[in-house]
């Protein structure tokens, strides 16, 4: 049973086949919240236990993470405006959702992100140059997925949910104690891929967590048009239990994600988490949200800013000292400088590099195209260097 902010019980329906009755998963409209927008710690006996190890030092670390990824986002946006990146999908306002969930993962867990999870990539260990090079147009992928257990970002809406479910089914067959997490936005829940992924995940009780960052806008389409019920109610039709959490509350996100990951590892099957947050910036740097968004709505959500919320909690606990603030600022400045330098100094790809890594083994069809394109470019009397195969 979940408890709401007033401490009242919120009962959930009887779980379907394969689901344990003791799992504290929600139905109804209440948000799980452990830190209020005013920075006050809210006690929830069922969920406090999942973050009892998060002491003062860890709270400061979460604050640093959120501050750093916001700075990455601001620097990347500036780089795009200055012509150094072709495009950038901002994460402004969604820092708690990304940090709270990604800091709950183990190294051996595998993650399937959408295009907006740059904060997750940072946490998982992607180099800043690897995060930037796709958006600079220098490569079709960023990092080696096997090195950091993070798949390459997916532009096709919701497709990564199928990849995650398939990987989770493989993990299950291997008998590995590993969980899989798929990120997507509210708009993706209207895609067939996500719904098909939930069908398979429920049927095979795959160890996958579907993490939906409900940021209220699928580009210019508001979530109220996409769904006339709360998004966390949708997966229950597939027999998948769900939780609806305050996505701007890093502790609540962490608690919910830990519950879901633990359930997956113990054979409890899939879980759906709806993290209710807000996209404070544009959908991408090619978007103008002022054309469809009421500025008053933005002001309302700015008061619920995830970093400001944690900052208030730290101040109330006397943890936000001058030394801590200086350390966080220095880290953010250093990361931003590294992102900028690695982006600007990134070598341009060779024209024929586009044919590399299409297939893992030699392919005659690709080789023929490469040969034709090479001869076409050489017709301009400008010999083309081949990139490494």
General description of the model:
This protein has 389 residues and is an alpha/beta fold. It has two domains: 21-344, Rossmann fold (3-Layer(aba) Sandwich), CATH 3.40.50.970; 350-389, no CATH class. It has 14 helices and nine strands. The chain has helices at residues 45-48, 56-81, 95-102, 118-124, 128-136, 145-148, 159-174, 192-204, 223-226, 250-265, 295-302, 306-316, 322-344, 364-378; strands at residues 2-3, 9-10, 110-112, 180-185, 208-214, 217-218, 221-222, 242-246, 271-276. A five-stranded parallel β-sheet has the order 3-4-5-9-8, sandwiched between helices. The protein has a two-stranded antiparallel sheet with strand order 1-2. The chain has a two-stranded antiparallel sheet with strand order 6-7. Strand 8, helix 10 and strand 9 form a beta-alpha-beta unit. Helix 2 (56-81) crosses helix 3 (95-102), helix 2 crosses helix 4 and helix 5 (128-136) crosses helix 13.
Give the topology.
Blueprint: E1 2-3, E2 9-10, H1 45-48, H2 56-81, H3 95-102, E3 110-112, H4 118-124, H5 128-136, H6 145-148, H7 159-174, E4 180-185, H8 192-204, E5 208-214, E6 217-218, E7 221-222, H9 223-226, E8 242-246, H10 250-265, E9 271-276, H11 295-302, H12 306-316, H13 322-344, H14 364-378
Parallel strand pairs: 3-4, 4-5, 5-9, 8-9
Antiparallel strand pairs: 1-2, 6-7
Helix pairs in contact: 2-3, 2-4, 2-12, 2-13, 3-4, 3-10, 5-13, 7-8
EC number: 1.2.4.4
Keywords: Oxidoreductase, Thiamine pyrophosphate
Domain Dehydrogenase E1 component: 65-335
């Amino acid at each position: 049973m979940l408890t709401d902010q007033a401490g009242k019980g919120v009962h959930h329906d009887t779980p379907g086949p394969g689901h344990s009755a003791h799992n504290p998963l929600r139905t109804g409209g209440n948000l799980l919240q452990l830190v209020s927008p005013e920075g006050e710690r809210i006690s929830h006996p069922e969920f406090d236990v999942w973050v009892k190890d998060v002491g003062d030092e860890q709270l400061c670390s979460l604050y640093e993470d959120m501050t750093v990824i916001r700075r990455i986002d601001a620097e990347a946006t500036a780089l795009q405006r200055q012509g150094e990146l072709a495009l950038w999908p901002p994460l402004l306002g969604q820092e708690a959702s990304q940090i709270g969930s990604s800091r709950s993962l183990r190294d051996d867990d595998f993650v399937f992100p959408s295009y907006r999870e740059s904060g997750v990539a940072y946490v998982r260990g992607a180099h800043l140059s690897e995060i930037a090079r796709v958006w600079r147009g220098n490569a079709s992928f960023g990092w080696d997925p096997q090195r950091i257990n993070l798949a390459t970002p997916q532009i096709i809406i919701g497709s990564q949910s199928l990849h995650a479910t398939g990987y989770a089914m493989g993990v299950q067959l291997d008998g590995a104690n590993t969980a899989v997490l798929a990120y997507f936005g509210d708009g993706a829940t209207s895609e067939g891929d996500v719904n098909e992924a939930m069908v398979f995940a429920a049927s095979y009780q795959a160890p996958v967590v579907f993490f939906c960052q409900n940021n209220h806008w699928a580009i210019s389409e508001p979530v109220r048009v996409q769904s006339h019920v709360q998004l966390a109610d949708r997966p229950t039709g597939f027999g998948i239990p769900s939780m609806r959490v305050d996505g701007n509350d890093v502790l609540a996100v962490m608690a919910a994600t830990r519950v879901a990951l633990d359930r997956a590892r113990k054979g409890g099957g899939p879980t759906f988490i709806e993290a209710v947050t807000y996209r404070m910036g544009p959908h991408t740097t090619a978007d103008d949200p002022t054309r469809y968004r009421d500025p008053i709505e933005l002001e309302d959500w700015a008061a619920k800013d995830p970093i400001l919320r944690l900052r208030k909690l730290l101040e109330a606990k006397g943890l936000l000292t001058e030394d801590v603030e200086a350390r966080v600022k220095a880290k953010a400045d250093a990361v931003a400088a590294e992102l900028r330098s690695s982006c600007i100094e990134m070598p341009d790809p060779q024209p024929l590099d586009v044919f590399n890594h299409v297939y893992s083994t030699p392919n005659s069809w690709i080789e023929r195209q490469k040969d034709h394109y090479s001869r076409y470019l050489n017709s301009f009397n400008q010999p083309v260097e081949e990139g490494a195969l």
